[in-house]
Design brief:
Helix content: 10-25%
Structural class: alpha/beta
CATH architecture of the largest domain: 3-Layer(aba) Sandwich
Largest sheet: 6 strands, mixed
Radius of gyration: 30 Å
Bound molecules: adenosine monophosphate, magnesium ion
Strand content: 25-35%
Number of domains: 4
């Protein structure tokens, strides 16, 4: 990235800042990211949502011993009667955490609980519901097989195997898996610091009285929410007027304290007059018109050492561009080389959609399970990029490819699921 972004991009054959496809923009962005390098040790619980900075190898087998998957009776399958019922004498009990110490001989079995170590001489467990107990013996029918209800040592993790590679984002199951190895601390990359501010003379902050023609700044709240979900350190710099002096101060201040700067507003054709020269002076920033709707203007590059994203001001466009460009970039910057994409799935569209070919569209929709068992999507009524309510009502984007035109009701469309994921 420290190579000249503006020059490198414009040297590419098919580089057209005024008509940049979503995929191409994503690729340019990916090529100019310098992920966080600093590492720190964290107690396991605090590492949720953080990215591992080193590979974890299993120091032991998990489980450490063969054990029972069921409450039942452990025995040796050599005793199985191929036809007719098998009868075995109960010689003792094995509890989880309290093994049966003796050897189990021919014709014998041990009462065993889930998780208890398999007694010597046993290789199978018949579940208690299938065993008939009479006096100090059991009998069961011939369907029971060798190795049944046996959990093998190392079945979950084998000693020496790679449990996670560096760059893995830690989820709840991962914390448990690491705990199963007895590890209480993990080495992770430090938290990414993301600073943001809104630009616009028309913006008022909450607590201020709205003047004529003013609107409350909502972008800082959606941005805060989206960033919080990613687990980054958030630095909210407030609202900055469309004034070159104030914008310069804000950009210089954020560049000194953050890894990433996000701004909203001020990058559209009619508005970039202040931002363009400033960003040219303080760093290297390209201004793109992305072939997408909503979210056409986007600025990307560096201000000082910080990565910079200039998002459009429209509240819906902020969210769409965040999910399409910023989210992936932040996950990479956090230390994940290959972040999982937001799932994209086919669904039946229950209403006609209007679209002109030439731009990728991200219409807002509600994905629902219909009575006929199929997943269907209903577009939200008002698709204007200023109507933030459409994002609140939606649980998915209907992604319409650049080349595609109108969609008839009943056609299959691609949806990106937002609920609970982002
Ligand atoms: P801009 O990209 O600055 O031209 O802004 C486009 C539209 O988004 C205008 O209607 C702005 O009033 C609106 N807008 C810009 N920033 C915000 C914000 N932080 N909160 C709410 N609306 C905004
Ligand atoms: Mg503006």
């Amino acid at each position: 990235m420290t190579t000249n972004l503006t020059r490198a991009a414009s040297c590419s054959d098919d580089y057209d800042p005024d008509s940049m496809s979503v995929d191409k923009a994503r690729k340019y962005i990916r090529d100019y990211l310098d992920p966080v390098q600093t590492r720190e040790w964290l107690p396991l619980r605090s590492a949720l949502g953080r990215v591992l900075a080193e590979t974890i190898l299993a120091p032991y087998d998990v489980p450490g011993h063969d054990n029972s998957a069921m409450d039942g009776y452990a025995f040796n399958a050599d005793d199985l009667q191929p036809s007719g019922r098998t009868r075995l004498r109960i010689v003792g009990t094995a509890f989880a955490g309290n093994a049966y110490a003796g050897m189990v001989d021919k014709g014998e079995c041990v009462r065993i609980m889930t998780g208890a170590v398999m007694p010597s001489g046993c290789d199978s467990v018949v579940m208690q519901e299938r065993a008939e107990v009479e006096n100090e013996a059991i009998s069961f029918d011939p369907e029971v097989k060798r190795g049944q209800n046996l959990r093998r040592a190392g079945e979950d993790l084998r000693r020496g195997q790679t449990v996670f590679s560096a760059g893995h984002l830690l989820r709840p199951a991962d914390l448990g898996l690491i705990a199963s190895l007895g590890m209480g601390e993990v080495r992770v990359f430090r938290r990414l610091r993301v600073a943001f501010f809104s630009t616009g003379d028309e913006l008022a902050s909450i607590g201020q009285t709205l003047g004529p023609g003013q609107v409350y700044d909502s972008n800082r709240y959606t941005l805060h929410g989206m960033l919080a979900r990613l687990g980054v350190e958030i630095i909210d710099m407030g609202v900055v007027r469309d004034d070159p002096v104030l914008l310069r101060i804000a950009l210089a201040e954020t560049a000194a304290s953050a890894d990433v700067i996000l701004t909203s507003g001020g990058v559209s054709v009619g508005e970039a007059d202040h931002m363009k020269p400033l960003l040219g002076e303080l760093g290297q920033v390209v201004f793109w018109k992305i072939a997408m709707k909503p979210g056409r203007p986007l600025a990307f590059g560096r201000v000082g050492n910080a990565h910079y994203f200039g998002l459009p001001g429209n509240p819906v466009a902020v969210m769409v561009t965040f999910y399409q460009f910023v989210r992936e970039a932040l996950l990479i910057l956090m230390g994940q080389p290959e972040p999982a994409a937001i799932p994209r799935l086919p669904a039946v569209c229950v209403a006609a959609l209007k679209k002109v070919p030439g731009r990728t569209e991200f219409q807002r929709g509600t994905l629902f399970l219909d009575q006929d068992g199929a997943w269907k999507v209903r577009p939200i009524g008002n698709q204007s990029s200023g109507v933030l309510r459409s994002m609140s009502e939606a649980n998915c984007f209907i992604v319409m490819a650049e080349g595609c035109g109108n969609v008839q009701a009943g056609e299959i469309v691609q949806v990106e699921v937002l609920d609970g994921i982002v």
